[in-house]
Specification:
Pfam families: TerL_ATPase, TerL_nuclease. GO terms for molecular function: endonuclease activity. This is Terminase. It is built from 20 helices and 20 strands. By secondary structure, the protein is of the alpha/beta class. It has 3 domains: about 220 residues, P-loop containing nucleotide triphosphate hydrolases (Rossmann fold); about 50 residues, no CATH class; about 210 residues, Nucleotidyltransferase, domain 5, CATH 3.30.420. Strands 1-2-10-3-9-8-4-7-6-5 form a 10-stranded mixed beta sheet, sandwiched between helices. α3 runs antiparallel to α4, α16 packs across α17 and α18 packs across α20. The chain is elongated, with a radius of gyration of 28 Å. About 45% of the residues are buried. The N terminus is likely disordered.
Amino acid sequence: MTSKASKTPKQRPPATTRKAGPNARKPSKGRDRRRDCSAHAHNASEIAIAFLETLRIPEGPLAGQPLRLADYQKQFVRGALADDVMVGALSIGRGNAKTALAAGLALGSAMGKWDTQPKREIILAARNRDQARTAFNFVAGFLQGLPDDDQERFAVRFGYKLEVEFLDNGGGLIRVVPADGKSILGGAPTLAIMDERAAWEREKGDNLENAILSGLGKRGGRALIISTSAPDDANTFSRWLDDPPPGTYVQEHRPPPGLPADDLESLLLANPGAVEGIGASPEWLVGQARRAIARGGSALSSFRNLNRNERVSTEDRSMLVTVDEWMAAEVAPDALPARAGPCILGVDLGGSRSMSAAAFYWPETGRLEAMGTFPAVPSLADRGASDGVSGRYLEMQERGELSVMGDNTVPPGPWLAQIVRHLDGATVAAIVGDRFRYAEFVEAIDKAGLSRVPFIQRGFGWKDGSEDVERFRRALFDGEIKVAPSLLLRSAFADAIVLVDPAQNCKLAKGRSLGRIDAAAATVLAVAEGMRRKAAPARKARAAWV
């Protein structure tokens, strides 16, 4: 892992830690006055780490043994409890003891180990009461492992209100709050833990979060936001990770997209506890990954989201094709079939500020090529940072797979003319594109001098989309697609999913809101049309009458 003080880092490794905002290195004087002088002398985070390692594991195979923090847990405690941090956000795979870690911090905070304000208030917030009870049970379990003298200073309430009250050292109260913002208006927490933030309902969750954050300012409190990855980039938890406000510490354990689900190295990036005896073992993770791959569909999506900590939705979605299935079509450049026979040109015209992509498919030989183009503003480096792919677009440009044209938009006519020049004289049998962009296609085809080439309109909805997806999949699985290794296509298919209706019809969609699937869409259009032409019966020559 690396630590960064930049709000928008140029390169973001799979597991990153950083502080955001201009105040990342300036201590907050107002908050420091309220803390015990000993906490300043020894650093609150080191006091917290020392306290956590006096606790005993409350459940599991190691129950009763002393708690030993892993390196990634110590790193989060040090970052989240730094003097200049108000919010600590942790994203990590399921089963890596993030809730247990937060519960231990809640107990230490209630006891005033590093904050001696009187009447301390700690909130355990979750989507609902049952989910919050998980963190509460960890608090109660840690408490039972304390010496008898310490236990006598607590009052635990298991009723309608789940509360743990510390009766000494100024007093401290830990209470459970479900995702209903009205329930804590007027509160003044010194510590708030938002557990599994990505799973909260959007409106109620945002209301609760806003109420918590507004209350923290009254007493210089801080919040810990912990969760596995959200299903998309629009989720509030994703925004905490991608665009953290000043005073935020972010630690994210997320592997690069597009890797096989059973890739061990990336599994360990999302599950660092596996090599330190926390949660599932590496062997179990690989076994579960292979079972999920075999089942496919929502089982694979759920594994990627929960265990690999990837931003993949699990609701009525499945991958268009898996990474392994797509890479089976890749061959060495010198092993590519020839450009023989007519070429089908699949085109996905981009809108303002988005990619335009073209796919070239020769049905007779199965050869496939693809190209993409972005407008010049913003730059490819800035696009990569905002789309969460770092320098991938620049790498595509170096490989000759991605180009830049126009300022804020890609001009359709000149772009299509450039695409045709790439064919170097090969015959274009048909151009396939979205029927809802028909007028733009007609103008672009005329400007590119392709008015004699037939344009085939296809929709991306359930009717046309389902047929095209199935024809594309069949061609891929039957070995009728051969393509040189392409980072553009790998990236596009890694983000491409299908939505499935109750009748099992499919249509293409993005797996992430910032994903770029334009090249995948163009490929599906080109290959599906090529397969239709191959399946059509050959026409017999008419008899000539003399």
